[in-house]
Design goal:
By secondary structure, this protein is α+β, with helices and mostly antiparallel strands.
């Protein structure tokens, strides 16, 4: 018994020491960040952003060891490092540079160089990926850590780096999402060509959305990802993807209007004596329960209904990617923040008649496009409910005795009930049940009058010939087939009906829409070889209707 008590005492002492060490490290790293930031003349808003991303962003609320990585400690976000960022100068003709209309000219000048009248793009290299990119040393000019003008510091993401020109005034910092040759959560973090294309396509989608409806009036905003760099060199191939980069900009809301865009992981962080969310609640003037109901249930579900569902664009709302906007003194604005556009998934069923939107994604494979509808709805359950809402409520309850276990249960049930009501209203479900949601969603993908209307009538039936069959198989192998069927074998059934318009080939089985292929410009040029009867259709852009197919029999 005495031995047991002694062991118990030793364990308590060990826990206290670990806790003290953790607080000490937290304080040391916070101080280190402040000292370094002052030394490098970083503006206050960026110091606060780095503090929230590096120091507050907590992985402690998740399974122990989940985020273990083999990255040098000198580059871990929680250690608040600032380091020199080397880069390669890639000739313009050997790279594909993607940019949106809103790409900032000052940022463009930072990431490009003009030498002897020739444009070069700067491919930034994370220090942990120098060996990975060494194959380029003999081919391109390398600006080493000793020569580079750029300094960098990681965000909460190991490969997304805040970058600024150390020879300037840090007037226009930006974030470079670079390739990191390390496995994190079971995945290598080399930035694929596909991720880059998806990111820029989604940026263009949101810019169009903002022009037509205003993102902020719709209850959200987003970190702009305005440029991407893809290597066209032979060293970047199917067998070895070197990876490119994405340039993410800071919104004027942050830099000029002093709004704070805080991730939910930072809001709920236990690394502060009192989590930041408690300051936000206090500033709102609401009780914790009313704040949760107004912002985390009602306002979020309003955003989910009117943006995610109605506009067919699904984000990945986990605690790192989903953020919350406040004023500089933590007054909530009610705006949710989307980060990491390569994880956004469009639901093309909502965009069948929108040629501009479909054209954006014509060069993108199915990585983020396949079954976006059901994946997006399920992501709400796993990511928002479990990783944001549930964890945040638990942290609030620790600091507000009025939030009892019964109120926690009640608020969680309220979120689930209201979420299912939104799904029932949008998709026309009679019974919203989470476990059957994927099956229900697939049954709603039917070729009916509504489908015909959404394609704006500009659709024509074509024969399911062996040539079309070969075309579909080719697209499947190139991951350009967006599959909505339960089995891929269904897609290759020669009894399927095929419909086509200017942008899409639709594959239909028994009046059920089971797959689609978004046509590229090259595909449209090949159409005449497959079905010569379609040539005039594409040339004249005339509307055709397959009314007999929709008639009741």
């Amino acid at each position: 018994m005495v031995i047991i008590l002694r062991w118990f005492s030793l364990i308590r002492i060990a826990i206290l020491l670990l806790y003290t060490l953790n607080i000490s490290l937290f304080a040391r790293n916070s101080e280190f960040l402040a000292v370094n930031a002052t030394s490098y003349a970083i503006p206050n808003w960026l110091i606060e952003y780095l503090y929230e991303e590096q120091i507050l962003h907590s992985k402690d609320l998740f399974e122990k060891g989940l985020f273990d990585v083999n990255i040098d400690e000198g580059y871990l976000p929680e250690n608040a490092p600032i380091f020199a960022l080397p880069y390669y100068l890639i000739p313009g003709e050997e790279a594909e540079f993607l940019q949106s209309k809103s790409h900032d000219l000052m940022v463009y000048k930072e990431i490009t160089s003009v030498l002897e009248g020739k444009t070069f793009y700067k491919l930034f290299v994370h220090p942990e990926s120098e060996a990975h990119y060494s194959v380029l040393r003999s081919k391109y000019r390398y600006i080493s850590p000793q020569e580079t003008e750029f300094l960098a510091s990681p965000t909460s993401s190991y490969r997304s780096l805040v970058v600024w020109n150390s020879q300037g005034s840090c007037e226009k910092p930006f974030i470079a999402k670079v390739s990191l040759d390390k496995n994190i959560l079971g995945h290598n973090r080399i930035l694929s060509d596909e991720e880059i294309r998806v990111s820029i396509a989604n940026q263009l989608f949101f810019e169009d959305f903002d022009k037509k409806r205003s993102v902020r009036e719709s209850g959200f905003d987003f970190f702009p990802e305005t440029a991407g760099l893809i290597l066209k060199t032979s060293e970047n191939n199917f067998f070895q993807q070197l990876g490119g980069q994405i340039i993410r900009e800071f919104s004027d809301k942050m830099t000029k209007e002093q709004k704070k865009w805080i991730s939910f992981a930072s809001l709920m962080s236990p690394k502060r004596t009192v989590p930041l969310v408690m300051e936000v609640i206090k500033k709102s003037g609401l009780s914790s329960e009313d704040f949760i109901r107004e912002y985390l249930i009602d306002k979020y579900l309003n955003f989910f209904k009117n943006v995610i569902l109605k506009n067919g664009i699904y984000d990945l709302p986990h605690s790192q990617n989903l953020g919350f906007e406040t004023t500089s003194d933590y007054m909530p604005t009610g705006i949710f923040i989307i980060k990491d556009l390569s994880d956004v998934m469009p639901d093309f069923i909502e965009h069948l008649g929108d040629s501009d939107i479909l054209d954006l994604y014509s060069e993108v494979t199915d990585k983020n496009l396949n079954k976006a509808r059901d994946r997006g709805v399920i992501n709400f359950t796993y990511h928002y409910k479990e990783q944001v809402f549930d964890l945040l409520l638990e942290e609030i309850a620790k600091h507000d005795e009025k939030i009892s276990w019964w109120k926690l249960h009640k608020l969680r049930s309220e979120l689930e009930e209201k979420h299912l009501a939104v799904l029932n209203e949008h998709f026309g479900f009679k019974h919203g049940v989470y476990k059957n949601i994927q099956k229900q969603l697939m049954h709603k993908v039917e070729i009916d009058k509504d489908f015909f209307d959404r394609t704006k009538g500009n659709i024509l039936e074509t024969s399911n010939s062996s040539r079309w069959h070969g075309f579909i198989r080719e697209k499947y192998l190139k991951k350009r087939l967006i599959n909505y069927s339960a089995s891929i074998s269904e897609v290759f059934d020669m009894n399927n009906k095929l419909f086509i318009n200017q942008n899409v080939l639709f594959i239909v089985k028994e009046k059920r829409f089971i797959a689609m292929i978004i046509l590229t410009l090259e595909d449209r040029a090949r159409i005449n070889l497959i079905d010569s009867g379609l040539s005039k259709f594409f040339n004249d852009h005339k509307k055709h209707a397959c009314q007999s197919f929709f008639e009741e029999k």
